Amino acid sequence: MGDASDAGLPVKRRVGPDGIHLFDRRTGLNVLFDEVDVPETQWTRAPRQVSIALTNACDLACPFCYAPKAAAMLDADRLCAWADELNAEGCLGIGFGGGEPTLYRRLPQVCRHVAEHTSLAVTMTTHAHRFTPRLIDALAGAVNFVRVSVDGVGPIYEELRGRPFVELVQRLTWIGRAFRFGLNCVVNLRTLPDLDAVSDLAATTGAEELLLLPERPARGRPGSSPNVVAALHQWITDYRGPVALTLGAGDSGSLPIAQPLPSETGLRTYAHIDASGTLRRSSYHSTGEPVDERGVLAALERLQQKDVA
Ligand code: SF4
């Protein structure tokens, strides 16, 4: 279990049904002592990872966006308090998203608080177009991993994201000099033919990871068809590139994927807090529990009980 005394240390310890798990936020190294049988009463209470939508605001208009469009933004002091609580309860990392997290004015201050007062890894999902040398300086050392949304190259990228591809490549070069980073790719009929080019882009820019995200149904769009998902799985099977591939939970189908912590499931693994402060099982779930003055863990327990009832 994590505790307040480990604040600021890079290596985090977490215990659960799979054993004792050590995590180093600087390198992303995970070590699991699975021969240790830990009684359930000692299991870590917090989810392993929590994503937080800082704001619903975004300056792009991607056709497949499922982020809520109602104006909402989290208070920075609440965010810091939640990070402290999650850290003390054994969470390993928080991922800031949105909307677009770089539109959140106090992003550098919140990231620095987490870096200096907790052992949580900070990740961020961004379209990257607001990464300037100044913002990079403000975030350097306070963000452990940056996930950049890239669903195609050249004209397909520009059609979907509405920004010059050459500017994206410039931002990736800057980001790669300051942070470990990966690419997130929404896969649908339009982007599927660009997967080779996106994986080449990941390799040439120094990305460590390519996260493949079959498009989810949202706002009248049906999401990726079974044929697209089957073609994606075939592409993954044939892939021989140097960049590690990852898939979102529930997207692996019959693919043989590594499951290092098979017994840690559901809310033990992951939870999402939206920009209005509601804790949900994921950003795709429409219902949840508000995080009030009792904190994140109290909301988590209410959500668990609600699901049991
Ligand atoms: S960049 Fe992300 S949040 Fe913004 S419109 Fe596109 S998908 Fe939505």
How would the blueprint of this fold be written?
Layout: E1 11-16, E2 19-24, E3 29-33, E4 49-53, H1 76-88, E5 93-97, H2 107-117, E6 121-126, H3 133-139, E7 145-149, H4 154-161, H5 165-178, E8 181-187, H6 195-205, E9 209-214, H7 226-238, E10 244-247, E11 270-273, E12 278-280, E13 289-290, H8 296-308
The structure holds iron/sulfur cluster.
Structure, described:
By secondary structure, the protein is α/β, with parallel strands linked by helices. The protein has one domain (45-308): Aldolase class I (TIM Barrel, Alpha-Beta Barrel). Helix content is 29%, strand content 21%. It has 8 helices and 13 strands. It has helices spanning 76-88, 107-117, 133-139, 154-161, 165-178, 195-205, 226-238, 296-308, and strands at residues 11-16, 19-24, 29-33, 49-53, 93-97, 121-126, 145-149, 181-187, 209-214, 244-247, 270-273, 278-280, 289-290. The strands form 2 sheets. The protein has a 10-stranded mixed sheet with strand order 10-9-8-7-6-5-4-11-12-13. Strands 1-2-3 form a 3-stranded antiparallel sheet, with no helix packed on it. β8 (181-187), α6 (195-205) and β9 form a beta-alpha-beta unit. α1 runs parallel beside α2 (107-117). The longest helix has 14 residues, at 165-178. The model is unreliable at 1-5 (pLDDT under 50). Iron/sulfur cluster (SF4) is lined by residues 58, 60-62, 65, 67, 98-100, 127, 149. Iron/sulfur cluster binds at residues 58, 60-62, 65, 67, 98-100, 127, 149.
Helix content: 25-40%
Low-confidence stretches: 1-5
β-sheet strand percentage: 15-25%
**CATH fold-level assignment:** TIM Barrel
Assembly state (oligomeric): single chain
How many separate helices?
A: 8
Overall 3D geometry?
globular
Small-molecule binders here are: iron/sulfur cluster
Rg, alpha carbons: 19 Å
Rounded mean pLDDT score? 93
Number of domains: 1
For this structure, what is the CATH class? Answer: Alpha Beta
Structural category is alpha/beta
CATH superfamily: Aldolase class I
Question: Which sequence of strands runs across the widest sheet?
Answer: 10-9-8-7-6-5-4-11-12-13
Number of strands: 13
Q: Can you write the helix and strand succession as a string? A: EEEEHEHEHEHHEHEHEEEEH
> What is the end-to-end distance?
28 Å
